[in-house]
């Protein structure tokens, strides 16, 4: 994926512009293949579903598909069912002490590749936006944490928009003590 307009992070999508036909091969049995041709504006397979929309690399408001139609103005549209991608690493285990050590994450150092958008936090109810510009980002973000000392020491990184997020690495600065 070289450009944001080429991003494709929705489920059950027929991608394309507003008028050109999109072809796909489907298999109806092990010995038979049929070629299905659909137009990008025809999304009858998503009727009554709420879909996420990425128009020319910009997230648009969600819409409900009615009669196979979704209204867009973009020339490259990706329209489909949204999903949430969640990264939640294993529990922190410091020197084999596991849950007996009380710890506080003070900063997460996250390495991203071709990423735009996302949130981070200690729980899904207390998430903070990861600051990005309007172009795909490759590099490191240092994200501060405002949590307390606790035994759990969880971190969550999430993407809920139809935008790309690839996390290459996660490093944590933390304080710890044996209570």
Task: Please provide a written account of the structure.
This protein has two domains: 4-80, no CATH class; 85-178, no CATH class. It has no helices and twelve strands. A hairpin with a 2-residue loop joins strand 1 and strand 2 (32-38). The model is unreliable at 18-27 and 29-39 (pLDDT under 50). The strands form four sheets. Strands 6-11-8-9 form a four-stranded antiparallel β-sheet, with no helix packed on it. Strands 4-3-5 form a three-stranded antiparallel β-sheet, with no helix packed on it. A three-stranded antiparallel β-sheet has the order 10-7-12, with no helix packed on it. The protein is mostly beta strands and 179 residues long.
Topology:
Blueprint: E1 22-29, E2 32-38, E3 50-55, E4 58-64, E5 77-80, E6 85-87, E7 101-115, E8 119-121, E9 127-129, E10 137-144, E11 156-159, E12 167-178
Antiparallel strand pairs: 1-2, 3-4, 3-5, 6-11, 7-10, 7-12, 8-9, 8-11
Helix content: under 10%
Strand-pairing-aware structural class: mainly beta
Give the strand order of the largest sheet, numbering strands 1, 2, ... along the chain.
6-11-8-9
Distance between the termini: 48 Å
How many strand elements?
12
């Amino acid at each position: 994926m070289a450009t944001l307009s080429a991003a494709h992070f929705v489920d059950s999508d027929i991608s394309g512009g507003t008028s050109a036909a999109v072809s796909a091969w489907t298999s109806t049995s092990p010995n038979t293949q049929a070629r299905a041709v659909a137009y990008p504006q025809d999304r009858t397979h998503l009727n009554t579903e709420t879909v996420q929309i990425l128009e020319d690399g910009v997230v648009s408001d969600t819409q409900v598909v009615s009669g196979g139609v979704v209204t867009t103005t973009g020339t490259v549209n990706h329209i489909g069912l949204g999903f949430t991608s969640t990264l939640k690493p294993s529990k922190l285990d410091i020197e084999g002490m596991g849950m007996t050590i009380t710890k506080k994450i003070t900063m997460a150092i996250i390495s991203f590749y071709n990423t735009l958008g996302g949130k981070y936090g200690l729980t899904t109810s207390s998430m903070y936006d990861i600051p990005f510009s309007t172009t795909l980002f490759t590099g490191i973000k240092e994200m501060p944490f405002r949590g307390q000392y606790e035994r759990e020491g969880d971190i969550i990184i999430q993407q809920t928009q139809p935008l790309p997020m690839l996390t290459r690495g996660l490093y944590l600065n933390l304080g710890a003590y044996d209570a």
